[in-house]
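If it is no trouble, might I ask you for a protein's amino acid sequence along with its backbone structure tokens?
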Amino acid sequence: MDVDAYMAERIPRIDAEIEARLAVHVGLPESLRGAMRHLVFPGGKRLRPLFSLAAAESVGGRAETAMPLAVAVELVHTYSLIHDDLPCMDDDDMRRGRPTVHVAYDEATAVLAGDALLTEAFAVLADPAAVAGADARIFAIGRLAEAAGASGLVGGQIDDLHFESGGGPSAKTDFERLASIHARKTAALFEAAIVGGAALAGANEAERESLGAFGRDVGIAFQIADDLLDADREEAASILRIQGIEDARLGAEGLLETALERIDGFCERAEPLRELARFAVRRRR
């Protein structure tokens, strides 16, 4: 399968759905509208929403069935980037090749734009016009909420801040603490995207369990790959603080292989999912 062609065909569809969703709101303050769109367009590689669509296909469903989740996951991801960049968090000035939202606007507007995107994500999934049934949508909402909340992104960010400052009492080793941060800040959203996408397409319990484990492994391997790509930067919560480059690369490859084994029994329709996993972990930028 040509993963580049797969991405080139689906990313414009994802972008169009995000655009349509954001355009629904009229009468917003222009500063809020601009801040909400600032990092959404232009976006990144849209990997998380692509995984949602591919997961739906992997269980025999149509990609369009998972499109509400694809949109929702990207909105949650963008919200997390806006908040991560704030002066009280990582205090970054650039993101996706442009000034961060708090730099382009102001800190208060950035906070509120992130809040608006997070809230909108759940409105997308709750929309009764979605193709999938209510039970599947409720399941997807629950998994996304867990990934975005205290046991996922938010809790992971707290531990990330403690890890960077060297504070926060813990009986865990640095490796265990970092693995926990990566599992919650990165892998949890990948898992929610994949399991939720499959659920919207009618996945059974066994398929959801396999895909959940697949998503966790891919998500952590993806974060290790990110750390390797940023090896020249001084990142506190980086695997390279406690592992050499070659060991980290081998670790990511090991996780990828384990992830692929978890869905070995899936049919040929899971090939886009497999290729996206390989791309996510082995990408060069």
